[in-house]
Amino acid sequence: MVALKDVRKSFGPLEVLKGVSLSVMKGEVACIIGPSGSGKSTLIRCINALTPIDSGSIKVEGQEVNTPDLDKLTLRRKVGIIFQQYNLFPHKTALQNIMMAPIQVLKQDRQEVESRARNLLKRVGLEGKESGYPGELSGGQQQRVAIARSLAMNPDVMLFDEVTAALDPETVKEVLVTIKELARDGMTCIIVTHEMAFARELADQVYFTDKGVIVEHGRPDAFFSNPQDPRSRQFLNRIL
Amino acid sequence: MGEIESFFVWLNEAHGINLSIFYDAFDRSRLLRGALTTISLSCICLVLSIAIGIAGAWLQGSRVRLVRNVVQVYIQFFRNTPPLVQLFFFYFALGSILPMVQDTHGADVPLISNFGWAVISFSFFAGAFNVEIFRAGIEAVPRTTVEAAEALGYSRLKAYIWIILPLAFRVCLPALNNNLVNLVKTTTLAYAIGVPELFYAAAQIWSEVLNVQEMMNVLLVAFVAIVGAVVWLVARVERLLRIPGYHA
Ligand SMILES: Nc1ncnc2c1ncn2[C@@H]1O[C@H](COP(=O)(O)OP(=O)(O)OP(=O)(O)O)[C@@H](O)[C@H]1O
Ligand SMILES: [Mg+2]
User: Fold this and answer.
1) Which atom number of ligand 1 is nearest to the Cα of residue A42?
2) For a disulfide at A135, which of A162, A217, B185, B246, Cβ 3.0-4.6 Å?
3) pLDDT tens string A194-220
4) Contacts with B179 (C-beta within 8 Å, 6 or more apart), sequence order
5) For residue range A126-156, what is the model confidence (pLDDT) as tens digits?
6) Residue B241 DSSP symbol
7) Which of residues 48-87 of A touch B (CB under 8 A)?
8) Residue A145 lies in a domain
9) A235 falls within a domain
């Protein structure tokens, strides 16, 4: 489904990804953890070509991302991304935020899109918030609208970049629940997170990154109970 | 003769305050036509200058350096030269090299009328400022919001139309307001190429009726009203576009 091979990326003199390889199967949940600055966000943003890479290969359902004649629209239909800061469109209501891209980008029928958008809002537990503007919603609610907005494009893969990092503890849970439901419904997810319990419960594979390389990866129980690499061990000791 | 008319005739005879526009039908229609010309000139230039601002700000973000440079030269030219000089440049320099065309009666007339040149000149003048104003608004739109649009498959143009511009527009309304007020006032320069706008009409009246002082006051009041209408309109638009819970 998603396969990265020897991906390298530098920002000027700073090499942020030093040959990263990973592969995620359809329906799998991969969690990426690691210290700040280790390149997690960069890695995830490469997958939908928000950040172009220097070398290596990224394949999403067989489509090569690292090529000059990339069809970005097709790629972005397939790959949804949720950011730490929600990034809703502030001038549109929750419902409109969800409906915009399917109508304006995919040129789908407005009525069909609207009924789907209403269902999505229900699915993320926000029935009744249709006409609320992002500025009137809490962080957790905004993040769930963002998830619904992304789902409205019918993606095959969802990328989550520390989507609960800006939330207060009570609202973290509601967002995590939404993601869990998605994963259980069979959505392929790549999740950057600092929520270890969440990763442990949900992940099929855990990847630990440090300084631009994947130091270790494996099943969550094995990884969390018995990390092999000293760097992962040290990281887990520090935060658990 | 109605009451109003006789009052102003009396005012002239008794106190020497000669507001001929209130009792002389010809003067009144001249002035009203002038006001109408000023208003239509302002409205057309307003719309065109905003369109130029929107298009220019878009082109400024172009990947092609030549395009960006052309926009930059345009802005510098119109910002750093007096609008009267620009108007003369268009009217005399460009107007004289354009071919004449025949009107419906078979007479030779210029391809672009005086009014047309005023529209072109003032639209480009105000447009140059609008490009900068919109650019500032666009820069105020968070990079992350644009990125979210990109991630949803928006092309650069679609993101500009549906997300960047609506947000930028709200941010730049106060600056836009100033520039549009300035534009309305600048339209009086059209007098210099004989466009019968408000100032031109007033000048015609006072040179015949010899009531410069009175007409000056009329002129000032008229502009206060027209500019006031523009300010009111922008304030209305601002209210209409206000986003609940959002502070730009
Ligand atoms: N656009 C950019 N230009 C220059 N440097 C960048 C850019 N984006 C990221 N970096 C640098 O790349 C490194 C990795 O950044 P990245 O955001 O991928 O880390 P991260 O693992 O997501 O960290 P965090 O946990 O704090 O979010 C950092 O040192 C960062 O400063
Ligand atoms: Mg990050």
Assistant:
1) 18
2) B246
3) 999 999 999 999 999 999 999 999 999
4) B49, B126, B129, B130, B133
5) 999 999 999 999 999 999 999 999 999 999 9
6) T
7) 48, 50, 72-73, 76-77, 80-81, 83, 85, 87
8) no
9) yes
* Average pLDDT of the residues in A74-90: 95
B247, part of any domain: no
The protein residue with its alpha carbon nearest to ligand 1, atom 9, reads A42
Range of the domain at A69: 2-89+156-239
Q: Which of A7, A18, A41, A161 to mutate to test the pocket of ligand 1 (most atoms within 8 A of CB)?
A: A41
CB atoms within 10 A of CB B76: 11
> Which of B152, B154, B164, B171 to mutate against chain A (most A CBs within 10 Å)?
B152
- Ramachandran area for residue A113 (φ above 0: left; ψ -120 to 50: alpha; else beta): alpha
Our count of domains for chain A comes to 1
**Is residue B140 in some structural domain?**
yes
CA B52/CA B50 separation, integer angstroms: 5
Partners of A5 in beta bridges? A57
Instruction: Name the domain count of chain B.
Output: 1
DSSP state string for A154-185: --SEEEEESTTTTS-HHHHHHHHHHHHHHHHT
Compute φ and ψ for A24, nearest 5 degrees. Answer: -125, 130
Report which ligand 1 atom has the smallest distance to the Cα of A43. 18
- Nearest Cα residue in chain B from A45: B151
Contacts A100 to B, Cβ<8 Å: 152, 162
Q: What is the DSSP code string of B113-135? A: -HHHHHHHHHHHHHHHHHHHHHH
Confidence category of residue A168, pLDDT binned at 50, 70, 90: confident
CATH of the domain at A64: 3.40.50.300
| In a domain? residue A206 | yes
pLDDT in tens, B177-224: 999 999 999 999 999 999 999 999 999 999 999 999 999 999 999 999
In a domain, A108, yes or no: no
Say what the ipTM of the complex is: 0.92
CATH of the domain at B172: 1.10.3720.10
